[in-house]
Design brief:
Layout lengths: L9 E5 L3 H13 L4 E5 L2 H10 L4 E2 L3 H5 L4 E4 L3 H14 L5 E4 L5 H7 L8 E7 L20 E6 L8 H12 L3 E4 L2 H31 L10 H6 L7 H10 L1 H20 L5 H19 L1
Parallel strand pairs: 1-2, 1-4, 2-3, 4-5, 5-6, 7-8
Antiparallel strand pairs: 6-7
Helix pairs in contact: 4-5, 7-10
Length: 291
């Protein structure tokens, strides 16, 4: 039986790091018969073409956008905001444009400046990152069983055929779509993604100072410490824009965490601490049920 024609026949991926590269590899693995175009540094493009992740590389944004049916902006948040300016004059009007940014409010605000009759924008955020970035860590299976948040600018966006086709595409990659609004998204990820990163980095940084002072033998670090500091391998460059574009929510999450740590500190010698452990264990059980 001949496979159905793909809805998106030409897909341009701007940024072939962990997420963009995984998108390209996942499409290849799926056998989605679209022509894949990538844009990144020459050495990254060479690796992406050699691996079959993309069919060709573009020299610049205008070339990457030319004739595209689906445009995936897979760069850091700050660069996504810049790219949206270029889309105003370069993106095909029939295209669907989406992004993979970890914050959504400012991106959606900028996307609303796209001219009427231009491409359709649908915010996206696959919650499937790793502590390592770069095309060399891209994985065709990265999105399998991962939550993929979609943040339409209005309720009518998801009724558009392009949005429906994209929803079906991410489901075919094994991801679990979750439709929400930009403000709710940014609040949620402040607690569920950004706070864990900062706690991991903060813990590792604090211990590094103690180790440098000679007051802690790092050889005694067990699996618990290693698990908690896994995210500390993430580079600051990856998180700079995230912190800058979600600062109020992150500060609120940090304040809540400080209050929780104070509460734990107060109850170290009382049975009240057991309530914290019980509540934490029940949350972990819920997480296991979702996998």
């Amino acid at each position: 039986m001949k496979p159905a024609e793909p809805y998106f026949k030409r897909i341009s991926i701007i940024g072939l790091g962990l997420i963009g590269g995984s998108w390209a590899l996942a499409l290849k693995k799926l056998g989605y018969a679209a022509h894949r175009v990538g844009l990144d540094r020459p050495e990254i493009l060479a690796n992406a073409i050699a691996s079959g992740a993309v069919h060709e590389g573009a020299k610049d944004v205008n070339e990457a956008l030319r004739g595209a049916d689906l445009v995936i902006l897979a760069t850091p948040v700050g660069k996504i905001l810049e790219l949206l300016e270029q889309l105003r004059s370069s993106a095909p009007s029939h295209a669907l444009v989406t992004d993979v940014g970890s914050t959504k409010r400012l991106i959606l605000q900028r996307a609303q400046e796209l001219p009427a009759g231009g491409p359709l924008f649908l915010g996206g955020h696959p919650l499937a990152g790793k502590e390592h970035s770069g095309f060399e860590h891209a994985d065709a299976a990265l999105f399998e069983n991962a939550c993929y948040a979609l943040t339409p600018s209005s309720a009518g966006v998801m009724d558009d055929g392009r949005a429906k086709a994209f929803l079906g595409l991410i489901e075919s990659l094994g991801a679990r779509p979750y439709i929400t609004d930009p403000a709710s998204h940014d609040l949620a990820v402040a607690y569920l993604s950004h706070l864990p990163q900062l706690l991991s980095s903060g813990l590792a940084s604090m211990v590094a100072e103690k180790v440098a002072q000679g007051s802690l033998p790092l050889k005694m670090a067990g699996s618990g410490f290693r698990d908690l500091t896994r995210l500390a391998e993430s580079p600051y460059a990856l998180w700079r824009d995230i912190c800058l574009t979600n600062i109020e929510n992150i500060q609120s999450a940090l304040d809540a965490m400080v209050q929780e740590l104070d509460r734990i500190k107060t109850h170290l010698s009382s049975r009240e601490l057991e309530k914290e452990f019980d509540q934490a264990r029940k949350l972990r059980e819920k997480l296991h049920e979702q996998t």
